[in-house]
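Morning run. Coffee first, then this:
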Amino acid sequence: MRTMMRRLRMDRRGATAVEFALLAPVFLLMFFGVFEVGRAMWIKSSMQFAVEEAARYAMVNTSATTTTVATYAQTRFTDSGQSSTGVTFAATQDTTGGVTFVSITATTTFTTLIDLVTFTNVTMTAKSRVPLL
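And here it is:
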């Protein structure tokens, strides 16, 4: 019996499988976390790009309506490879000090694709405001 216990204690077969079982969940959680953060940054960057392009469009086409500017922003967003489902674009005009400004905003709620960890939904916004000269 003593010899058998000594042999079991000295046996190293299966150590790699045990180490993998301990570290794999941590590695996968980190991997998918980096993936989701990168996806969130891509969506936020695409939204900001779209509203800035719409602001440039509004400066060049001063007669464009706010609806046209918002539609242009949505088009630029989908052109960047994103789905516009769940993203709202709005454009407003206001006058301050005799200068007319157009403000374009984009809003969406970011939800994770992989539900490994309970994560609250995050509201992301992008804004741009330019004068109409």
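The beta strands are 88-96, 99-110, 122-132. Good start to the day.
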